[in-house]
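Try it yourself: sequence plus TZP, in.
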Amino acid sequence: MNLPKEISCLHYISQGKDREEHLANITRVLKAGANWIQLRIKEMPQKEILKTAILARELCAKYKAKLIVNDHVKVAKTCNADGVHLGQEDTDVLEARKILGKDKIIGGTANTLQHCLEHLENGVDYIGLGPLRFTSTKKELSPVLGFSGYQELIEKYSQQENTVPIIAIGGIKVNDIEELRKIGLSGVAISSLLTHSKDPKNEIQQILDRFAVRV
Ligand code: TZP
Ligand code: MG
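Structure, out:
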């Protein structure tokens, strides 16, 4: 699949109880080879999220990684992040595009084919589709798709004339990559596995390698 804005095949989704923990977890995966960080902070005042985003921006610049801010378009704009990731309940994609401009990356969450088609219509740069399986990382999780759900959806999605990369999310482990890749996923977004990994370097390398096989 064509990757117009160089959408990485591995998105690390940050987690942590406070600013320090988010930044420590981000630093750890950057050192281990991650090249794409999605700063996902819930339950923190916007000012604090902005401070964290500015520091995450510096870290990502140091390791030549992309920084995508979850939910907060204004934070993404102010800290000059590479883009924003928007859920179904967040700022409208068209509105975000007006604020951020054409060169920034906008990703959108999807759980159904309808969501994917709407995102295409609105001009997102990638779609985060999931969950693959249950995960406690996200509250109010959408219905689990499983491999068969992805298969069915991607068969229909790939009949569209112009598509964008689809990134799988939700409870993903290294051993899932091969099957997801075969189904037609362009990448994976992972939080827990990498946050709690004893050897993130090894896991990141394995994931990048498994996607690199694809031509
Ligand atoms: N959206 C659907 S699942 C999820 C998000 C943000 C979190 C994925 O995290 P994990 O910990 O890799 O299951
Ligand atoms: Mg959101």
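One thing you can check immediately is this: The mean pLDDT is 95.
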